[in-house]
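dumping this here so i dont lose it
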């Protein structure tokens, strides 16, 4: 069955929407409590490269970042992991990450959580100080993964 190149197909995998348009696949994770579509995808797959959009660690009950920075670090990395795995990748396929943080004193707190999500070598990374993030978050994480 041939599909128009620009329209593509929509598949639902473990409640995550994956849409194809030509050589691109768009990964969109469900967001608890969010009934309107946001104007971005959680990741876009082009060939063997996955471009991971900015993720923030939100409490599913409040849709806000928790006050506890360590808990938020787990939530944000869990979100990245879910997106990567829903695209058929693993965390160890990530080759580059950027972390934006509202308080550089949280560097060690974030690193203690971050390092538990990888086996072996770590991706190239930047840890960048910023003023404010959405929903009172401490962290926003984005990156690139390449399928081996």
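and the seq i came up w/
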């Amino acid at each position: 069955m041939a599909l128009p190149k620009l329209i593509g197909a929509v598949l639902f995998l473990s409640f995550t929407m994956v849409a194809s348009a030509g050589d691109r696949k768009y990964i969109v994770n469900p967001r608890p409590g969010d009934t309107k579509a946001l104007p971005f995808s959680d990741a876009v797959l082009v060939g063997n490269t996955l471009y991971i959009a900015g993720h923030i660690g939100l409490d599913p009950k409040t849709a806000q970042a928790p006050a506890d920075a360590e808990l938020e670090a787990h939530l944000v990395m869990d979100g990245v992991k879910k997106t990567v795995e829903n695209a058929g990748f693993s965390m160890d396929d990530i080759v580059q990450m950027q972390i934006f943080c509202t308080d550089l004193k949280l560097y060690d707190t974030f690193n203690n959580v971050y390092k538990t999500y990888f086996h072996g070598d770590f991706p190239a990374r930047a840890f960048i100080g910023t003023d404010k993030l959405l929903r009172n978050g401490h962290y926003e994480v984005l990156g690139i993964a390449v399928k081996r």
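Strands lie at 10-13, 16-21, 24-28, 43-46, 49-55, 94-101, 124-129, 139-146.
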